[in-house]
Amino acid sequence: MRQTPVLVVGGSLTGLSAALFLGVHGVPALVVERRPDVLAHPRLRGLLPRAMELYRQAGIEAAITAVCPPAEETGRLVSVHAATLDAEHEILGEGPADHVEDPDAQPLTPCRFVPIAQDDLERILVERARKLGADIRFGTELLSLDDDADGVTARLRGPDGAQETVRAHYAVAADGAGSPLRRARGIDWTGPGTLFRMATMFVRADLSAALRGRAVGMAYLDTPATGTTLGPLDSSGRHWFFATAMTPGTERAAPADWVRAATGLPDLDVEILEQAPGTGQVLTFPIGARVARQFVRGRVFLAGDAAHLMPPTGGLGGLTAIEDAHNLAWKLARVLRGDAGPALLATYGTERRPVAERAVRQSYARGRTRWRFTDQGGEEPLLDLDTLMFATRYGSAGEPAPDPRELRGMPGTRAPHVPVSQDGDEPMSTLDLYGTELVLHVGPEGDAWAAAAARAAQDLGVNVDTYHLDADLAEPHGIGTHGALLVRPDGHVAWRAEGEQEGSEGHFAQVLRGVLHR
After folding, report:
1. Helix axis angle, 13-24 relative to 118-131, nearest 10°?
2. CB 268 within 8 A of CB 176
3. What is the secondary structure of 441-480 as a DSSP string?
4. What is the three-class DSSP state of 291?
5. Among candidates 262, 287, 257, 250, which has minimal Cα distance to 272?
6. Domains and CATH numbers, the chain
7. How far is residue 183 from each of residues 120, 166, 246, 293, measured CA to CA in Å?
8. Model pLDDT, residue 70
9. Backbone phi, psi, residue 38, to 5°
10. Average pLDDT of the chain?
11. pTM over the 0.90 mark
């Protein structure tokens, strides 16, 4: 029987990200995906800056930006809304996708929005995760999975039909919106549920008559159904990604006629291309708004669409899935190597579920206009993307997020980004200090905390990287001259002391135990 530390079921964005982040922590995961290869379909059309921060920690920021279109190509593209592509249009913004970067957001992060298709991203994830030890098996189906007090036992069927039994300590259910693993565990969900099915196609067509010289990066159209989208697959001007809601009207028409209706060109010559080997010309996906009632059941952890489904508006679905994997990976790694107690794993659900609930509500609110959802949850005040990306506060039980510019190292929040110069090199960020270890920042006169951390770490057999900050760096972290700030491997603040305290040594040891063994 094969043994593996973590079995990841599902080899798309969530599962591959989980394998990557586990690999960063030295945990070689086994990933099984029933499709024969990465799905050649763009789906997610770009990565928000917060997602890029997490991939930056994993060392693939440069690989991601290297495959993106040149700025001179994407910078001139516009997003438009119109009844049809041929009709009078409203310009929604510049850039190839929903997110238009706000210059005011730059001080919050060293990263930018990156226009990359999901299939290109997944190929990068596969390559990097394998280099870090992951065993990624495409064409492999999960037949059953049973968990007990000591681990999980899975039966797999490989591409050749041969069956194999695998034993793992834990399993990550990254098996999509229909998640057989979630259903098998009887986990229900909250929220409106599945709203409709989206049909997608790859199209070869000359749309110049409808574009009339416009450089369109994404068109949101009302025909043949509200929320229809059309965007370029490459710079040729002849290959397009098309998506529309499956309604009684569209279901009765031929797929090529959907494109003709959307473009406003009834005589358009349309060729529909196969999206991936063996998948056919039209793929359908559920569009919904729901959150699983539990993210953890025994030794199985739900992540990505298996845990939450949200309309594809604003890139929040992809971001939330990547954050799930990132949050879970360091906790699994710490427990597997004995640094932390199993109770740490329960915090995955208590931390990530409120974030997912908020993301679903925000995506639903953004999709209400695009798809004319019937109101099933009341009005949700829209939060700006900076708040959604950078103002998450774990432990707040879903309370409204504070202004990300006012956090200054507040416990539970992402540690602040502060640029740091290094002897003429390119400026780095304080965020670059996080990823694998616990990090303690102390103020200019925080030697007592540094000494307490060294003794506590030695006693507990863990590593704590300590950095002495000058006044200019200590102030944005909210710690003052004598204070200290403990940051988890995922970059979230675990604890903060704004000044020196009596009994620093004993107090810090208690803090460290709480972070790892609560």
Report:
1. 30
2. no
3. EE-TT-HHHHHHHHHHHHHHT--EEEEE--HHHHGGGT-T
4. strand
5. 257
6. 2-69+112-190+289-386 (3.50.50.60), 419-517 (3.40.30.120)
7. 30, 21, 25, 12
8. 61
9. -55, 135
10. 89
11. yes
